[in-house]
Amino acid sequence: MLLMSNVSKIYPGGSTALQDVNIHIEPGEFVFVVGPSGAGKSTFIKMLFREVIPTTGSIFVNGIDILKLQEKEIPYMRRQLGIIFQDYRLLPDRTVYENVAFAMQVIEAPHRKIKRRVMNVLELVGLRNRCNSYPNELSGGEQQRIAIARAIVNDPLLVIADEPTGNLDPETSWDIMEIFKEINASGTTIVMATHDKEIVDAMGKRVIAIEKGRIVRDEKNGVYGYEL
């Protein structure tokens, strides 16, 4: 599913974000990426959908060498992934339904399939009854649920989440994690960067810890491992 080999990233000016990263993530795994602020987590996450290009190394996602893709191929690769950000990135002038449907319209899915699938994923995230609302009419937790629905509506094999509970209160965060657990139980691989110690410790999933650009810990049934 995901293979990183000898990946390093040195930004202009000489700052090393990642150094000699080697990771193999199997289909269906749920993996937390943790570490102090500035450790390299965001660079790691952004490399998975080719927003950041490594200085050295190779990255394969679902068997595709994403570093060898031509520029015009990158959008098609990203459409096979579910990407979720801390700041939601919803379209403010579109309804909940339209925000989620947009991901299917881009790949030119049939109209009938779009309607059925969008309503199904809105049911999954508990917001079917808000399909005609706009993002500014929703709470932060509801907006994140819509972002999740948009990310999974095309049945991606891999969901990448960057601090998806970072702006949410603890109770809402757990509601969001229940959705992720259900998605993962259906067979979808999830890679999630987070600072949420309680969630990581309680979930008992694989934990990859990054410090100063290096992987210092990779544990099944791992814990967060840092004091907050």
Description:
This protein has 228 residues and is α/β, with parallel strands linked by helices. Helices cover 32% and strands 25% of the residues. The chain has helices at residues 41-48, 74-78, 96-106, 111-124, 140-152, 170-185, 197-203, and strands at residues 2-10, 16-25, 30-34, 56-61, 64-65, 81-84, 158-162, 189-193, 206-211, 214-219. Strand 7 (158-162), helix 6 (170-185) and strand 8 (189-193) form a beta-alpha-beta unit. The model has no long low-confidence stretch (mean pLDDT 95).
- Number of helices, where a helix is a run of at least 4 consecutive DSSP H or I residues: 7
* Distance separating the two termini: 32 Å
Query: Over the alpha carbons, how many angstroms does the gyration radius reach?
Result: 17 Å
What structural class do you assign from the helix and strand content? alpha/beta
Q: What is the average per-residue confidence, as pLDDT, rounded to a whole number?
A: 95
Globally, the shape reads: globular
What fraction of residues sit in β-strands?
A: 25-35%
Number of strands: 10
Task: Flag low-confidence runs.
Answer: none
Query: Helix and strand string, N-terminal first?
Result: EEEHEEHEHHHEHEHEE
